[in-house]
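Lab meeting, item 3. Inverse folding demo.
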């Protein structure tokens, strides 16, 4: 049954919620002075059309007070958005391909962001039609076209087109929160921080596929605790689980970082045979080179998960293929020892993540887990094909420039 996703500010007057008669459960993101604090789950098994403010208060006390305590709320209050005079300009890059309707929603959110100085760059990646270009014509955005297919080609094009020192990325099926850029700017106020990731929450849980992905698979969220990552504080195992650091729908970097490390690996991610992994490979490489990444949950992005079961199956299959391609890239770049990579691949990824869940799926579909295993099995072949494709496209671009 669908779940209603809502946003609740604790410091504001609490009001009843209406229009929930077709939902068995309310999935509520709770904030305190704008900062996300926890999820609140309200059971509506009797399909009542509304929930009163008093019932909400009782549920908050029952679930949040006992669970985390007021001290935890106070702990979250250290985040304070800087005033406008100290906010740096930010370039926001949205890479897209033939998803004009989703992009329109993303742009609508971006254009209502509360931030004094930012630009929006749309990178149209090998489009099959002119719809995205037509959408951009009447909007206050910059439109560029990248004809080499692949999300990391598009991200690198965004890096080269960006005019500001901080470059934030989001996806065309995501909707950044109104205060997204203020939270990112606050994170970059710490001079050692070279990359920032943030909280990604579901924009809707209307279908079985969306609920399975968010609840059963774990979704994209990385929790409500602000964390700083650097190589000295991480074991090799933690460094390789770079999917725990964030996701590409919500990430930002200092431009100067790409003067010392290579940009995104064009053999990885959506639009190539590897089917993903470009974002987590970048997180891993940043930390492996000794730089600092900060996870700031106040930087919120709402993501529309895949709505159909068939698209979820393809996504999980792609995840298996992408993570294998990511590990092979780490081996090629020698960011950690190959013996450590082999141990991690067998015991952590295949053993702990896939086989353990096949034996004890805890409600998640074994068929989907097998899909991920199938993708993992095919990843070496996909990676070789992706390398050949990346070399061909790189050579063809070089030849074009030299003419």
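The presenter then showed the designed sequence:
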């Amino acid at each position: 049954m669908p779940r209603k996703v809502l946003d609740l500010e604790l410091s504001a007057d609490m009001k009843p919620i209406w229009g929930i008669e077709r939902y068995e459960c309310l999935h509520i993101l709770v904030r305190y002075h704008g900062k996300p604090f926890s999820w609140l789950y309200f059971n509506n098994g009797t399909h009542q059309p509304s929930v009163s403010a008093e019932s909400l208060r009782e549920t908050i006390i029952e679930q949040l007070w006992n669970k985390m305590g007021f001290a935890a709320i106070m702990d979250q209050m250290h985040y304070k958005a800087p005033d406008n005079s100290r906010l740096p300009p930010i370039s926001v890059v949205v890479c897209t391909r033939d998803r004009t309707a989703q992009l329109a929603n993303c742009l609508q959110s971006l254009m209502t962001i509360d931030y004094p100085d930012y630009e929006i760059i749309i990178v149209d990646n090998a489009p099959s039609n002119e719809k995205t270009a037509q959408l951009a014509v009447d909007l206050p955005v910059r439109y560029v076209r990248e004809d080499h297919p692949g999300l990391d080609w598009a991200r690198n094009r965004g890096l080269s087109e960006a005019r500001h020192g901080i470059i934030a990325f989001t996806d065309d099926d995501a909707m950044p929160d109104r205060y997204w850029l203020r939270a990112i700017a606050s994170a970059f106020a710490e001079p050692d921080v070279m990359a920032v990731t943030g909280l990604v929450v579901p924009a809707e849980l209307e279908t079985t596929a969306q609920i399975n992905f968010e609840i059963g698979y774990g979704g994209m969220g990385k929790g409500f605790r602000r964390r700083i990552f650097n190589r000295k504080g991480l074991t090799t195992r933690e460094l390789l689980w770079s999917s725990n650091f964030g996701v590409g729908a919500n990430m930002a970097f200092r431009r100067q970082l790409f003067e010392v490390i290579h940009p995104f690996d064009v053999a990885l991610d959506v639009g190539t045979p590897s089917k993903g992994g470009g974002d987590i490979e970048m997180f891993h490489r940043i930390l492996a080179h000794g730089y600092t990444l900060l996870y700031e949950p106040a930087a919120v992005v709402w993501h529309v998960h895949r709505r159909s079961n068939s698209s979820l199956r393809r996504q999980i299959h792609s995840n298996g293929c992408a993570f294998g391609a990511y590990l092979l890239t780490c081996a090629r770049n020698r960011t950690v020892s190959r013996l450590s990579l082999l141990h991690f691949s067998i015991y952590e990824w295949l053993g702990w993540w896939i086989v353990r869940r096949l034996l004890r799926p805890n409600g998640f579909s074994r068929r989907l887990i097998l899909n991920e295993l199938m993708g993992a099995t095919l990843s070496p072949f996909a990676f070789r094909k992706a390398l050949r494709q990346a070399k061909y496209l790189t050579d063809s671009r070089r030849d074009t420039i030299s003419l």
